[in-house]
Amino acid sequence: MTQINSINAADTQTAALGVQAEEEDELSTSTKKELEALGIPVTEGMTESQAQQKIQEARLQKQAEAGIQPDVSEAELMADVKTLAGNIGVAYSESDDTEEILINIANELEAQIDEAENNPQELSTLMGYFNQLKNLDTVFEEMQSVQTAIYAAMDMVATKNKQEHGLE
Does 3 fall in a domain? Predict the structure, then answer.
């Protein structure tokens, strides 16, 4: 399991405050409608990236409550993770798994956030990447959870079949 939720909390909070002070993006009409449809209040000063993160979190929450798997395949998730890795300059090999790449991205983002401490524009970009990372990590964790549940169910069926046929 990855622990992406806290890239150096102090740096993230400092970065978020700096970014918040500098960003004055207007939300698009479609984003506002989507927020309203999901029951998320549109707050003054909310940026497009913050709104998109809230939308993604609300969708994942609704899927979790409904017991629905994320609508992303492992291959799509890996492609998204590799794209993010490329965007921030993280090298990976084809043999690296999703979790390894996510951890490498988190480490690189932490280093880049430390370096960009006094550059609000760079921090804004990095915080967008950090939000993408958190969303990808959430999807990855949900996939892992679903796979674990499926394997447990398959194991129970196999055990029951063995018992019914006197093999255990």
Answer: no
